[in-house]
C-alpha cells in the first residue's frame, strides 16, 4: 500500500470517527461532517459522498439509538411517526437524487447546514 493510499485510508477512518462522535453527541448530524470530508480528504465525487454518507450513517444511527434506548432516553412512541415519515422521505429522496444536479444538491445541503446552525445558536 502506497503512502498516499495509507493517508487516504487514515482520513477515511478519521472521517468515520468524527461522524460517529457527532451521532453520539447529537443523535445525528454525522452526514454534515462526512460529506465534505469524503470529498476533500477521501477523493469521492460529490454524488458518491452523499450516497456513501447514507450507508455510513445508517449503522452509526442504529448504534446510537440502541445506546439512547438502553439509557432510557428514547421514546419509541414519539419516534415512530418521524421514522415512518423519514422512510417515505428517504425513498422519495433516493429516487430524486439520481437526476438531481449536484450544484443544486450542494446548495440545498448548505442551506440545511446553515439552518441547523442558526437554530442551534438561537
Written account of the structure:
- It is a single chain.
- The protein is mostly helical and about 120 residues long.
- The chain has one domain.
- It contains five helices and no strands.
- The protein has helices at about 5-25, 30-40, 45-70, 75-95, 100-120.
- Helix 1 crosses helix 3 (about 45-70) and helix 2 packs antiparallel against helix 3.
- The radius of gyration is 16 Å and the shape is globular.
- The termini are far apart.
- The mean pLDDT is about 85.
Structural topology:
Blueprint: H1 3-26, H2 30-40, H3 46-70, H4 76-97, H5 102-121
Short précis:
With 122 residues, the protein is an all-alpha fold.
Helix content: over 70%
What's the average pLDDT?
84
Largest sheet: none
| Helix/strand structural class | mainly alpha
Number of helices: 5
Gross geometry: globular
What is the count of β-strands? 0
Low-confidence stretches: none
N-to-C SSE string, H for helix and E for strand: HHHHH
Q: What is the end-to-end distance?
A: 48 Å
Kindly provide the radius of gyration, computed on alpha-carbon positions and rounded to a whole number of angstroms.
16 Å
